[in-house]
Amino acid sequence: MLARVLFALLAVLQISACGDTDRNRVYPVATGPSRIALTEDPVRMHFDAVGNYTTASVAVAMYGRDLNDVIGRGSFPMDKDGSVTIAGVKFDYASLGATAGDVTFVLNRAQYESIRSPLGARLGAVRADINATSSVAITTFGEGTFGLTQAYYYVFADSPEPVKFAYTANPERLAAMTKDWTISMTYGPTFTFLEKCATYLDNGASSRCTTDYADTSAYATSTSRTLLPGIYDVKVRARDNWGDEVSGAKLVVGLHPVARIKLAGPSTSTVGATLAFDAVDSVAGLTTGFLYTLEKPAGSKATLLDEWSRNPRLVADVPGTYTVTLTLSYNGEVSTARVSRLVTPVPTGASGG
């Protein structure tokens, strides 16, 4: 019995010493950019064939519409320098030993414009890999990066007009794209729709888009019935044959600004009195803040206190008229209101108030 236990323990120790080969294996690594500018600057891809891949080779290929639309291919032994030209683009391989190397190439705009695949498509991707195990792909060229063109979009909650989300994309990738939209607010409503450049009705929110090779736009209605006042996260995920990209923005749905301001406290004031203003009844409309301006008598050094709030105040230091104007603005609409108080001298034998 003891012999069996010792034999089992020895077997466990041997297995532990050998280790888990799948866990300890280090796979090849390929690194490089996913998008490039069409300039004369060299583009670099790096490859490191470690572990059991000491006799690896690096392969490069150019594709059009998808992986079945091959423009051309080439390969390099990992341990030897070399070069190959595909569709007029020269790829240079520099060996860094038996297990590593770099591929560099230059793709300018003239070259990009001249390349066509067997199916007549523009260049869709440049891919490279080590022994077909680890790969890197460039799928966006030039200034065609997908993304929303604004960080913030503003709309009135009761507006019958839709808000327009505009974005740009690589023209050659645009036709094959589908776009998943999500408009959401924490603890609030969420709207989602799939855009294929048609008209949809989703949760009462109409959406449509137009497509050309310069710009694509999506719309979402923002009435009080569908989008309540607040700040929403807008995300669009674009997908095509080569992958997907996500772009985000903020949608600010606000009310029309209405400025209201009045004086609190007594109806008359004398020098030394505190004038308290009340703008609580104003409708801010999601404006970034309350803007107050003060007009005061000549010689006065009074300043507004708490002017970031709805209840600013000042201490009247000389006789005369003090006027405070409140300005609120949102989405190009401005509302103003003002209030004045005539401050009189302190009567003889009395204190200010």
Quick structural gist:
The chain has 353 residues and is mostly beta strands.
Structure description:
This protein is mostly beta strands. The protein folds into 3 domains: 26-141, Immunoglobulins (Immunoglobulin-like, Sandwich); 147-254, Sandwich (Immunoglobulin-like), CATH 2.60.40; 262-344, Immunoglobulins (Immunoglobulin-like, Sandwich). It is 9% helix and 46% strand. The chain contains 4 helices and 28 strands. The chain has helices at 2-18, 21-24, 109-114, 171-174; strands at 29-31, 35-36, 43-48, 57-63, 70-77, 82-86, 89-95, 100-105, 125-130, 134-138, 140-141, 147-148, 152-156, 163-168, 178-184, 190-195, 199-202, 205-211, 216-220, 230-240, 243-254, 262-264, 269-270, 274-278, 291-295, 313-315, 320-330, 333-344. The strands form 7 sheets. The protein has a 5-stranded antiparallel β-sheet with strand order 1-3-8-7-6, with no helix packed on it. A hairpin with a 2-residue loop joins strand 17 and strand 18 (205-211). The longest helix has 17 residues, at 2-18. It is elongated. Mean pLDDT is 78; it is low at 1-25 and 196-225.
List the helices and strands and how they pair.
Elements: H1 2-18, H2 21-24, E1 29-31, E2 35-36, E3 43-48, E4 57-63, E5 70-77, E6 82-86, E7 89-95, E8 100-105, H3 109-114, E9 125-130, E10 134-138, E11 140-141, E12 147-148, E13 152-156, E14 163-168, H4 171-174, E15 178-184, E16 190-195, E17 199-202, E18 205-211, E19 216-220, E20 230-240, E21 243-254, E22 262-264, E23 269-270, E24 274-278, E25 291-295, E26 313-315, E27 320-330, E28 333-344
Parallel strand pairs: 2-11, 13-21, 23-28
Antiparallel strand pairs: 1-3, 3-8, 4-5, 4-9, 6-7, 7-8, 9-10, 12-14, 14-19, 15-16, 15-20, 17-18, 18-19, 20-21, 22-24, 24-26, 25-27, 27-28
